[in-house]
Sequence to fold (368 residues):
Amino acid sequence: MVHLACSYIPYEIPLAAGIPAARGVFEGPLPSTEGYLPRDFCAYARAFVRQYKDDDVVAIAESCDAMRRVYDVLRYWNLARTVYFVDVPRTRDPDAISFYAEELESLASKLLNSEISPCHEFSERLMLAINCMNQIRKELSDVFDLVSERQLSAGRGIELVVNVNQLLADFRSTHDAPEAVPCLTHDSEPGMFDTIIERIRGMISQTVSEPAPLSQDRSRIPVGVSGTCLLDSSLIECIENAGLDVVFIDSCLPSRTYDFVVDNKTTSRLFHALAEAYLSKAPCPRMFQGTERIKRLYELASDHGAKGLVYFAPKFCDQAYYDFIEIRQSLKALGRLPVLLLEGQYGVGKTGQALTRVEAFREMLEGR
Fold:
């Protein structure tokens, strides 16, 4: 299995190589990292420092200083047999896209254990993987349209995203695990990925058919959620339990992973298409696109009628702290949109302190 450490690393490449892949989605408590990393590293970075199985691959993105140190630690202490470093640009200009296309092609060659560029057969499988992920992204984007329309609670939406991520992690060969989803091997048919899509559609149908009473009360105040990385769903549940409706989530887990498509018309430049799509998706705080990010948050709030924004920063996340200052000042200047800063570790939404602060934020919004 390939453990992806960032939403900028494509699912499509490992899936086309016939290897299950999933974003790192963890739950607390974290494994002991004493002696491996300083204590003032964010929970998400520390969650990656653990003993992996021999057949696991960890793909670490150049997203921040902490993740660079995670890459060093995994290699130095032999915690993972195979660790790849993916150098993700911070811009999306033509040079950055060309560079990242080469970086992704290099990642594909490493996963295929090949010193040469991926062959034509792999390109065909990569196209199938791109089409599959495009369909998955569309299906999940439609689900979060229901969240924005307050027809489905955001907590249920996040739960669905985590389950889809786990489904891709269980992507296995039928010869190894007959009950699991088959992977795309050299002799596979396009129907293999159709099975994945159908299973995901079944999960979506079950999710949206179950009642979600929290999102039916129109007197509840709509808010948005943003930040660097949403560690778990407990924060969303906390916000909903405090009497607010989350109408959009600008974070790595849902929107920045699924709210875009990859151009599948240019079959001869698939790595370039992947690089362009992933670098052009909704920017996160690591990208040098602060003005665009602020404009997008303001438009999201305006389009969905959000009366406030909850900004979550994993504790010790430097990028989140820098980003929050600019976001708060700019949103205040644009439309006086109140912003609440919450920080914490895994399970922060289960703490009384977080609930108290969110309830106070709700009372302030009611007063406005």
Observations:
- Residues 173-189 have pLDDT under 50 and may be disordered.
- The radius of gyration is 20 Å.
